[in-house]
Amino acid sequence: MAHVGLTHFLILSSILFSFGLYAVIVRKNAVMVLMGIELILNSANINFVAFSHFGHFGWDGQLMALFVIILAAAEAAIALAIVLNIYRTYLHINVDEVNKLKE
Amino acid sequence: MELYDIVFYLFAILVIASAAIVVASKNLAHSAFSLLFTFLGVAGIYVMLGSDFIGVVQLMVYVGGILVLLLFGIMLTNKITSVEIRNESTFVIPTIVTIGIFAAFLIFIMTETNWTVLQPQFPRTTIKSIGTELLMHYSFVFELLAIILLIALIGAATLARNDNKEK
Asked: Which candidate in B14, B45, B60, B80 is best for mutational testing of the A interface (most A CBs within 10 A)?
């Protein structure tokens, strides 16, 4: 319970990253895997903003966080469209049972 | 700075607890709603790090956009008639062990490294500086991201379209 510094934010982002990685590896549902990816992107963003705050790097860290958020939005839209197509073909979205590229 | 520490721990507990519910809940809808609190907590963390604009963008894009997209995905890919929206897990125990070791390793790196920490500054507003930087040094990336977003939206609409001609 020391004074909150850079290390606290880094530890928080490490824990968040581990949760996201767990969701990506363990879960069968494709939407759940997407949620894990969002957690991982958020933890990376915390790192960007924390380093930008505690070291005087100007605005680069915050801008990188902004770009990551924009790319996450694009990725979520594309991935959900793919998930909908998988559901239309297989009637489920379990990523460990989807093993064909075409019908 | 005592209040700062308390607020940080509150946000950290909110983020970690809701992220744990996200990955542990058997119900997909519970996971999605818990993800809302994770995003809110992360937005608070951004504000605590002196980047209010990123916090607001986090709220607008993640909570307002991506979370709604994920909820659409959940509702469109599960049968409405089945009350239980379940999802299963595989390889739980080995993954927990591996991720535990990995997380311990990460936290070890983060705590043991001698980071050069300067005195943090809390700017009064970040929007003007970010806007200037975005249109001066990062103008190419800015335009590129606009094109990428356009391509992604067109691609998503094309992929998700229902092709009735073939059937």
From this structure: B45
- Residue B96, CA atoms < 13 Å, CB-side half-sphere: 7
DSSP β-bridge partners for residue B27: B86
Q: Tens digit of pLDDT per residue, chain A (103 long)?
A: 568 889 999 999 999 999 999 999 998 888 899 999 999 999 999 999 999 999 878 888 999 999 999 999 999 999 999 988 888 888 878 888 888 877 6
Q: Please check whether the domain covering B1-89 is classified as CATH 3.40.1050.10.
A: no
Identity of the amino acid at A74 = A
Q: Name the phi and psi angles at B40, rounded to 5.
A: -60, -45
Chain A and chain B share a number of CB contacts under 8 A equal to 227
Domain boundaries in chain B?
A: 1-89, 123-162
Answer yes or no: is A69 within a domain. Answer: yes
User: A71 vs chain B: nearest CA distance in angstroms?
Assistant: 8
Instruction: Examine the predicted complex and report whether its ipTM is higher than 0.85.
Output: yes
Residue A44 lies in domain: 6-90
